[in-house]
Amino acid sequence: MPREVAAGAFAQQAAACARLGSPLYAALLEQVARDIRDGGPCAAAIAGYLDASFDDAVPLRLLGGVHALVLTGRAPELAAHYPSAGGAFDPARPAAAWPAFREVVAAEPEWVRAWLRNPPQTNEVGRSSLLVAGLLHTVPTAQLPVRLFELGSSAGLNLRAEQFRYTAGDFVWGPVDSPVHLTDTWRGEVPGWLRAGAERHPSLRIVERRGCDPSPIDPLTQDGSLALRAYLWPDQNERRARLDGALGIAAKVPATVEAAGADEFLANVELEPGTLTVVWHSIMRQYVPDAAWARVERELDRLAAAAGPDAGFARISFEPRTVDGEPGFWLVTQAPGEPERLLTPAPPHGLPAGVDAAPRRRA
């Protein structure tokens, strides 16, 4: 039964990868699920994690560890199938990479198990499009200084989100010379609330950038850069290009990411007069135990209660949420004394966001 539970989680992740545009990983994960059921090398590699749920992201941990071997030149036969390492994926033979993948897992069990110990640290740059959209919508007046605090920051790349350039049709926002250019950020018409926010804020003044993560990554180190690259899906070149640009910006724009849980981190955050304090987070709630998240909510309530005309506070999130009976991922904003505003749905990697619609208020 434990092997069947694990195989089911890998099969579920295979379907997710197929939906999200990684046919290489979709094909590999289908084979991994079979190998786990058969008690093969993949079952041995994830021993101790056989009863993990889909939310524990064990498949992504395994894939990240193997991808790191590819990127460091320790799996040359598998690299021939990985576009991120100069190889090629053949859609006519989707399972062609499987024998080499299985051999790598069998040959490097300690390496793979080391990568299984921590949740994946994708730090997806594509989600910055949603976070900035929420910020443009939320900041009330032009050039109000913003203090930005991020929960589950990983390497803190999205703490530099206003340094990126965003386009969708005739909509353009962000520095023209940014090395990160997110295109086609919206499906259909860009919503009026975003156009109004962009017009109100030709730029954003971020005066403080701080985040937290239980196991933060330093993007300026070789190991940190490798981890970020390894967790990207190797057949998605646009995501890799965005990461390259974001790493360049991180070298120039300082941000601090503390090794701390979200509840511990927020307990030390206070509002400051003359500024807007913004707390945001994206696709990290699933990694926080319920008891700790209850403490996070209490700290957020404390900050909201302390807000006033001279010291503002807002919360921006992009997390899974069921709306009108339909599960999805939603950008949500909330200011003190106001109901939540559900701004838009989007895929988990952030691009493109959903159709034009007025923000929904929820009591």
Please provide a written account of the structure.
This protein is of the alpha/beta class and 363 residues long. Helices cover 39% and strands 18% of the residues. The protein has 13 helices and eleven strands. An eight-stranded mixed sheet has the order 6-5-1-7-8-9-10-11, sandwiched between helices. Helix 1 runs antiparallel to helix 2, helix 4 packs across helix 7 and helix 8 crosses helix 9. The protein is globular. It starts with a helix and ends with a strand.
Helix content: 25-40%
Which regions are unreliable across 5 or more consecutive residues at pLDDT < 50? none
Strand content: 15-25%
**Average pLDDT reading:** 94
User: N- to C-terminal separation?
Assistant: 43 Å
Major sheet size, sense and barrel closure: 8 strands, mixed
What would you call the shape? Answer: globular
How many helical stretches?
A: 13
How are the strands of the biggest sheet laid out side by side? Answer: 6-5-1-7-8-9-10-11
> Would you report the number of β strands?
11
Helix/strand/pairing category: alpha/beta
Rg calculated over all Cα atoms: 21 Å
Could you state the order of secondary-structure elements as H and E?
A: HHHHHHHHEEEEHEHHEHEHEEEE
Keyword list:
363 residues, alpha/beta, 8-stranded mixed β-sheet, 3-stranded mixed β-sheet, 13 helices, globular
Draw up the topology in text.
Blueprint: H1 2-19, H2 23-37, H3 41-45, H4 58-71, H5 76-79, H6 98-107, H7 109-116, H8 128-138, E1 146-151, E2 165-168, E3 171-173, E4 181-182, H9 192-200, E5 206-213, H10 222-231, H11 237-250, E6 256-259, H12 262-266, E7 275-282, H13 290-306, E8 311-323, E9 326-334, E10 340-345, E11 360-362
Parallel strand pairs: 1-5, 1-7, 2-4, 5-6, 7-8
Antiparallel strand pairs: 2-3, 8-9, 9-10, 10-11
